[in-house]
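worker-3 :: picked MarR family transcriptional regulator
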Amino acid sequence: MPLLLLKDLPRYECLIDAAKTFPDLDPSACEAYLYLLRTGDEAFRITDENLSAHHISQGRFSVLMLLLNKSECCGAQPRTPAELAELCGVTRATMTGLIDTLERDGLVTREPDPVDRRMMSVKLTARGNERLGEVLPGHFRRMAALMSGLTESERKTLVSLLLKILDRASAIGSRPPFAPSESASPAA
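worker-3 :: tokens ->
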């Protein structure tokens, strides 16, 4: 689902005009923000097209990828539903629904946690691995195609810039909302 419903973004000159009415509007910040959202929407759309062709949702794909990463990188240690919910940024109830459908389709299994028998662990099944083997080649090709317009150096710069934005988002998210007459200072 797109975050930004605009396909045609306002011209910079229009943002400058709007800043006359809305003094808190920083035209260059607004332009960069709108392009960030628009680009994110397009990247999401490209990923979603591939996942839809394989009849899998973004949420289910995220869970499968977290379980794949855990098994491939860290010695096949399953994750608890609570860990998966935290890593996906969803509620535990939402994660339960995702796991239920993945388990119904035979892509994951729930097992008693080997350390704490009161807990359940979620593991990727052989069928789940196969399914990812079908989805990932197209996913990786689309990702590479999308980023192919950037050099390696530009990609590193992009990552660095996006990390700065993520850092600011974390800082802003932990503060109370701005009052109507208050504006964010660049150093805030």
